[in-house]
Each structure stands twice: as C-alpha cells, then as structure tokens.
Design goal:
heterodimer, A: 437 residues, alpha/beta, 10-stranded mixed sheet, 20 strands, 22% helix, 37% strand, B: alpha/beta, Rossmann fold, 6-stranded mixed sheet, 4-stranded antiparallel sheet, 37% helix, globular, ATP binding (chain B), AAA+_ATPase (chain B), ATP hydrolysis activity (chain B), ATP-binding (chain B), ABC_transporter-like_ATP-bd (chain B)
C-alpha cells in the first residue's frame, strides 16, 4: 500500500485513540481531507521543483510505533547541549520520555502538546492559537490530522525565561521504518523572552521520516530565539514546517544548522502582523554524500517599518544538493520595509548542485530590499596565502570554508551553542583549527 | 641558499619570466627592483609555489634541492616565506589561531609534536613585542579590517613566528607610513642572521634605507638586466628606470 493510502486509512484508527468531542477534532478531519485531496507534493509543483520525496516515500513507514525504545541519558548525552542548565522536552519514537525530560509549570508552561490538547485548562490557548498560522498545504495538513504530541510552550507576559528549552526527538530503530509527526505550539507573551533548541536524532540506520509542524506566536515586544540543529544520520529525513506570527516590535530569530540527514526540507515562514518587527533567519548548510537540504523561506511584510534579515551559507561536497528558495513579500501597506536576503554557496565537488532562487514580490514603493546569491569555488589567492604559511591544501580549504560560514554564528546568543556549532563545522570540514588557545 | 637558473615562467600562456638567474647566499640581503609589470611579484610567487604560474624552463634550487615540483606548503616547511603585497582577509580566524595552525602544521610536516601551549604563548609574546603589536590585535580576525600598515606588520610578525630560511618581502613598504616602515624594517633587521637570507622586492629605494641590501638587481621585462650594490638603488631613485631601458636597448 502506498504511504498516502496507508496514512488516510489509519486516520480512523487514530481517531479511536483520541477525544472526538474536542474542537480540534473538526480541524483534524478537515486536514486529512486536505491531505487526501492533494497527496504528497511532487516536483511538478513550483515549490518542490528541486526536491523529490519519492526516494523517501517508498519506505514502508510505520505510522504508529507499537512500542518505544528506552534510552539512557549517558548514551544520548552527546545530542544535548549538555553544558548548560536547560528545560528539556524529550521524545523517544514519538512518545514523551519523562525520564530524559525536565519540564515545568512554574510560572511558565514547558510541557506536552498532548496535555495542552486534552486538558480543559489549556482550552483557551488551543482555541486561540492551535492551527491558526500553519498553512493548509498537504504536508502541514497531514501533520495537523495526526497532531497529538510534541512540545507545548506557553510563556505569559513579562517573563524572561532564563534557561533555554531543548526539544529533542529520538528514534531508536524499534520499527523497521518510522514516520513521526511532532506538533509544537509555542506562545510567547508580551515582553517575554525565550530561547529554544530543536533537534531530531535517529540512533540507527532504520529509515525515519519526520514531518514536523511548529507554530510560534511572538506577541508584542517578545523575543524568540530559535536554533535548529540538523545533523542526523544518512537514514533520516526531515520535513520541518515552521510558522512564526509576530506582533509589533517583536524579534524572532531562527538559526538552522544543516549538517546531515538524507533529505531535509525547511519550510520557514514569518508573518509580520504589526509595526517595527524584526525577523532574522540564518543558516549554515554543510553536506556531502548524497545529502539534500532545501531551505524554503518566506517573509511576509504586512505592516510598515519592519525589517527582515536572511543570511544562508552553503558548502556542498560530493553528490550533495542544496536548494534555497527565499520569498519576500512586501504588501502595499508595508512602507519603510528593510528586507535583506543573502545566499552564498561554495561547491566543493564538481558533482554537487545548488539551486538558488530569490523571489521578491514588492507592492510598496518606499522600501529597501536587497538580495544576492553567489555560487563559487574557493578563492585561489586565499588558498595560496594559507599554503604559503605551511598549511596543507586540505586544511587550508577547511579554514577558508570555516571563515566563509563563520559570520552566521555572530548572532548566536548562547555561547555553548556557538562553540558546539563551531566544533561541528570544524569536524565536518575535517580541520583541526586551534580554537582553544 | 637559493639558486635560480634560467627560470622561465608564464601565466595563461603569457611569458612573464624569461630566463632569470639569481644566487642568494646565507646571510645576504638581495633587493629586486624594477618598473611595474617587469615580473617582480611573479618571481616572488613562483619561488613560493603559486600554482597558477607555469614554470616552463629552468630550476629553483633551495639548499641543494630542486623545489620546483613542491607544493607551496612543502616549500614553506623547507623554510620559504613570502610576505604578501596584498595579504588575504580570513574572517573568523584570529591571528593567534592562524599562527598556531601554521606553526603546528609545519612541525607536523617535520615529524614533531604540536608546540606546547605555554611555549606558543611565550613565542607570540616575544615576537609581537618585536613588531610592537598590541595583544588585542592578536585576537582580531586575520587581516580583516586591518589598515595597510597593520597588514604589513602582521606579515612580518608571521615571518618572525615562522623563522624562515629564505624570506621574500613583496612590496612590503607599500602603504606604510614612516613609523610603520621603521617598525617593519627594524623587525626584519632583527630577524637577520648568518643562516638566513632575505629578498626584498620593491619599486622604491625608500625601504632600502632601512633594510640595507648587499646586492641590488634590476628586473625588466622578465629578465635581470643589471646587478650591483646598494649604490645602484640610489642611482635608480635619482634617475628612474628609463636609462636602464636605453642601456639595454629596449
């Protein structure tokens, strides 16, 4: 049976496990209808022109894992940012692991989507926020239909959350092939500040496909600082659908570090519903083998005096493929918009590919919008400079690629993440740069 | 130390060096002067091993070994150092970490362990004092946002750290004010010994007041057309290059 049919037919079984009287039920039913009508996206659609899901979808994914594996913290510690005190919402094969987690209800809610969807005390938030900004495309709809578990974070107004929140999804390979559909809802109140780190990590070579949806609401003057660390195994694929709704004077930053995985698609969408909003999205992609990373971004400038900053760097080796499709829409009312977009790429191998496509739709007449894409090889005079100092070719390449991608890390606010990513970059590029002196 | 015999080199099929002969002995300072486009920087790059230049004829012998087939890093490991006319900016890599990498890669090539951190720090302190370099400067990204003078001073700092046998200074005086010129020249002079040699490439005589050459060569149209002592440099300064062109019948 094809995956699509399997998913549609298992929706009924899924419904038996949940409360069909809840208001979310109607949303789920609409969503599965959407998915059934549209199916998985294909390369015939403009937004999927360079990314084919075919090789991933041919796996016979189990959509409801029967039982979940158990994990010891010491065995998976390396996937945590473990040198900081943090809240943790951890899932193993899609099920919450209380053992590995550290949640809280003390003034803020850092807990589970399943609780938020089922407990009456969260009903108002769910009514106001759940599925309000996720689009009705087939993959988001598919996630909505099966939405049951994930992270639920609610920060009331005027709270600076001191500790970052880590959301990690582990898959243990208990199933021959596993599909996961985490659903996250993050609501940040006025003047509040939160830092979140998200990671999906497979622990075996059994194929996994994660189709994740995250809705983030940044209310007035809220600051949301979000880090996505994508360094998964070659057997793991990820479709990340993230939607951020910003109110006036809020700041939202998303850094995406894509260093591994079979296929990664990031659909990252910012909607600016207020004035003087700042949206930042930055990314470093370093891949090789037959890996594929696709960044599909949207910034929707709806009101005046807002800014957006995009800076994506990519380094592609072997037979890897990168896609960058950055869309900026500036509505007629959104005067005095400043929108910047840069996508710079280095092709290390002759067989690597990058498809980059900026898409600007500007309807206002008093705006500053710039975009630039570059695709190149390493600067030969810089190579000669390094080699003339005794640094061998391979290390010199690594050093230059490190320098090329490095400025993206300037805006990383958590030093432990910065140092972790720095080390990951050095490791990916195969260089030993003396950072510690 | 260095012996260059009948060296011919080209870039993209354009002949630039057309039969260079040069011998530099340990302890000597040679100046290579010449008008723009005569091939001075090409000669420096060819000795240091820049790959885009094709050596078509001749040989470059360093301490008895033909280094023509060696890569730039291998030549560096054997003691060749080139101070660049236009040093490259490397954002995100500090001066200190760059030097640490360069020194340890050179040691690795010689089968040595990494230099212990305390020894490295001591060396950095010593050499940065020699070049009157501020400690803060060392934690800046390599050449990024450096003034012309800072870049050149940093080049000589690297030279001091790497202690080459053969140092080639390519237009090290360009972009330097008189104070920076004095500091750079002072650094070069202090690094001189009877075991190493220096080739100073310059368009003007000014630098040679501070780094006094034993020999001066005039490079013109890819050949050394005249050699002499430091007086030749004064003559060139006073009379320009035209008389040389006339003398060789160009």
């Amino acid at each position: 049976m094809e995956l699509k049919e399997k998913l549609v037919s298992s929706f009924m079984a899924f419904e038996n496990t949940i409360d069909i009287d809840s208001p979310v039920h109607d949303i789920r039913v609409d969503a599965i209808k959407n998915f059934e009508a549209e199916g998985f996206p294909t390369k015939k659609q403009e937004a999927w022109k360079y990314t084919s899901l075919n090789s991933v979808l041919k796996n016979d994914f189990s959509v409801f894992p029967k039982e979940t594996g158990a994990l010891d913290y010491k065995d998976v510690k390396q996937y945590f940012i473990h040198d900081i005190d943090s809240y943790k919402i951890i899932f193993i094969d899609g099920k919450y692991s209380s053992h590995l987690s550290a949640t809280t209800h003390d003034g803020i809610d850092v807990c589970l989507m399943s609780a938020a969807l089922n407990k009456p005390k969260y009903k108002l938030i769910i009514d106001n926020y759940f599925n309000k900004i996720a689009t009705k495309d087939s993959l988001s709809s598919l996630n909505t239909a099966f939405s049951a578990e994930g992270a639920y974070i609610h920060i009331p107004k005027n709270k600076v959350v001191e500790k970052p929140i880590q959301i990690i999804h582990f898959s243990t390979g208990n199933e021959a092939a596993l599909m996961l559909q985490p659903r996250n809802l993050i609501v940040v109140g006025e003047n509040s500040h939160v830092q979140i780190i998200e990671r999906h990590q497979s622990l075996t070579d059994n194929p996994t496909l994660t189709n994740s949806v995250t809705e983030i609401f940044a209310n007035k003057r809220a600051i949301v600082d979000y880090y996505k660390i994508q360094n998964d195994k070659q057997s793991a694929s990820l479709i990340d659908n993230t939607f951020i709704n910003q109110k006036q004077e809020s700041i939202a930053k998303v850094h995406t570090f894509s260093f591994g995985g079979k296929l990664t698609r990031n659909n990252l969408n910012f909607y600016q519903n207020g004035e003087r909003i700042d949206s930042t999205m930055k990314g470093i992609t370093i891949i090789g083998d037959k890996q594929h990373v696709d960044h599909n971004t949207l910034v929707h400038h709806i009101e005046p005096n807002c800014e957006s900053h995009q800076d994506y760097k990519g380094i592609f080796d072997a037979n890897s493929t990168g896609v960058f499709n950055g869309k900026v829409v500036v509505e007629k009312e959104a005067q005095k918009t400043n929108a910047f977009q840069a996508n710079n790429n280095i092709l290390v191998s002759d067989k690597a590919t990058i498809n980059t496509k900026p898409q600007l739709e500007i309807f206002a007449d008093d705006v500053k919008c710039s975009h630039g894409c570059t695709i190149g090889q390493l600067d030969e005079s810089a190579m000669f400079y390094l080699r003339s100092r005794g640094i061998p070719e391979k290390e010199a390449r690594g050093l230059l690629m490190y320098a090329f991608s490095n400025n993206v890390l300037d805006s990383v606010a958590i030093p432990e993440i910065k140092s972790r990513i720095t080390k990951l970059i050095a490791q990916k590029l195969g260089v030993n740069i003396g950072f510690d002196l | 130390m260095l012996k260059i015999n009948n060296l011919h080199a080209s870039v993209e099929d354009k002949a630039i060096l057309k039969g260079i002969n040069l011998e530099v002995k340990p302890g000597e300072v040679h100046a290579i002067m010449g008008p723009n486009g005569s091939g001075k920087s090409t000669l420096a790059s060819v000795i240091a091993g820049k790959e885009e230049y094709e050596v078509e004829e001749g040989e470059i012998i360093l301490n008895g070994e033909d280094i023509e087939e060696l890569s730039a890093e291998e030549r560096a490991h054997k003691g060749v150092f080139l101070s660049f006319q236009y040093p490259v900016e490397i954002p995100g890599v500090t001066v200190t970490n760059f030097m640490k990498t360069a020194i340890n890669e050179t040691r690795k090539a010689k089968g040595l362990e990494d230099m212990p951190a305390n020894e490295m720090l001591k060396l950095i302190r010593e050499k940065s004092e020699l070049l009157e370099i501020d400690r803060k400067f060392l934690s800046r990204s390599l050449n990024e946002g450096f003034s012309g003078g800072e870049k050149k001073r940093n080049e000589i700092f690297q030279m001091a750290m790497l202690e080459p046998k053969l140092a080639i200074l390519d237009e090290t005086d360009s972009g330097l004010d008189i104070d920076a010129l004095r500091i750079v020249a002072n650094g070069v002079n202090k690094l001189k010994s009877k075991d190493n040699a220096t080739i100073v490439i310059t368009h003007y005589q000014r630098l040679l007041d501070y780094i006094v050459p034993d020999y001066v060569h005039v490079l013109y149209n890819g050949r050394i057309v005249k050699s002499g002592t430091k007086e030749l440099a004064h003559e060139l300064e006073a009379k320009g290059y035209d008389w040389i062109k006339e003398e060789i019948g160009a």
